[in-house]
Write a structure and sequence with these properties.
Oligomer: single chain
CATH superfamily of the largest domain: Electron Transport, Fmn-binding Protein, Chain A
Strand content: 25-35%
CATH topology of the largest domain: Pnp Oxidase, Chain A
Mean pLDDT: 93
Number of helices: 6
Structural class: alpha+beta
CATH class of the largest domain: Mainly Beta
Helix content: 25-40%
Bound molecules: flavin mononucleotide
Order of helices and strands: HEEEEHEEHHHHEEEEE
Number of domains: 2
Length: about 230
């Protein structure tokens, strides 16, 4: 088991980095000095070859076989880029913990059942927002956006005034087809721990990922190496 309080990595790097990634994420959540310790910067790169990055929340790490989960709009800019190129990278940075995790890999959509479950657990105003927002599409003004939310609520049969004043739970709001989870299957992990005088500790693990027939992923063995700061 990795010593979560120790800044540097063990002298002999573990064969599989996933437990340490999990430990670092959990440690960051326990020692959260900011509202979203599970925020990661996700970079995608579509056909243009110009990378784009934005913050998303990491809603899960499955250490075996090794992927991260996040939720978004499949028709957003990132969603469209992922159709053209399913490779992506993510970075976590916890300034107060002097740690960074860099991830690279391959994206697949989460199973629909997983997206349904996550969507169903969200508060209704966020479910409504997912319906109302065609994420990354232009809108004239915030007022137009609020009107769009109100129109969407009506279409879904929600009485917003009643819901907001009475705290009534609306009838089930189904998940829009275009909103759901992605899995970022990890082919490369770098754990970075800050050292004195810029002599940081960096462990890099890589492995092969192979898509199998039903869009599952086969994972190869990990190779590890230490990098100069
Ligand atoms: C702290 C934080 C958390 C966010 N979490 C998410 C998220 O989990 N999913 C999401 O789609 N957008 C999230 N966003 C908004 C994205 O950064 C981004 O604006 C949005 O996904 C549209 O990106 P795109 O146009 O590149 O697709 C978050 C933003 C911040 C600042």
């Amino acid at each position: 088991m990795h010593d979560e309080n120790k800044q540097s990595l063990p002298e002999s790097l573990p064969e599989n980095p996933m437990q340490t990634v999990d430990d670092w994420l959990n440690f960051a959540k326990k020692n959260a000095a900011r509202p979203n310790p599970d925020a990661m910067i996700l970079a995608t790169c579509g056909r243009s070859g110009l990378p784009s990055s934005r913050v998303v929340l990491c809603r899960g790490l499955v250490t075996d076989p090794g992927y991260l989960v996040f939720f978004t709009n499949y028709l957003s800019k990132k969603g469209r880029e992922l159709v053209d190129n399913s490779k992506a990278s993510a970075v976590f940075h916890w300034d107060q913990l002097h740690r960074q995790i860099r991830i690279e890999g391959q994206i697949t959509k989460s199973p629909k059942s997983e997206s349904d479950e996550y969507f169903a657990a969200r508060p209704w105003p966020r479910q409504l927002s997912a319906w109302a927002s065609h994420q990354s599409e232009p809108i004239g003004s915030m007022d137009d956006m609020q009107k769009k939310v109100a129109r969407t609520a009506k279409k879904l049969g929600l009485d917003l005034a009643k819901l907001e004043s009475g705290g009534l739970a609306p009838a089930d709001i189904p998940r829009p087809e275009y909103w759901g989870g992605y899995r970022l299957w990890i082919s490369s992990v770098e754990l970075w721990a800050e050292g004195a005088n810029r002599i940081h500790d960096r462990g890099l693990w890589t492995r092969d990922l192979n898509m199998d027939d039903d869009s599952g992923i086969q994972t190869g063995p990990w190779q590890s190496t230490r990098l100069q700061p």
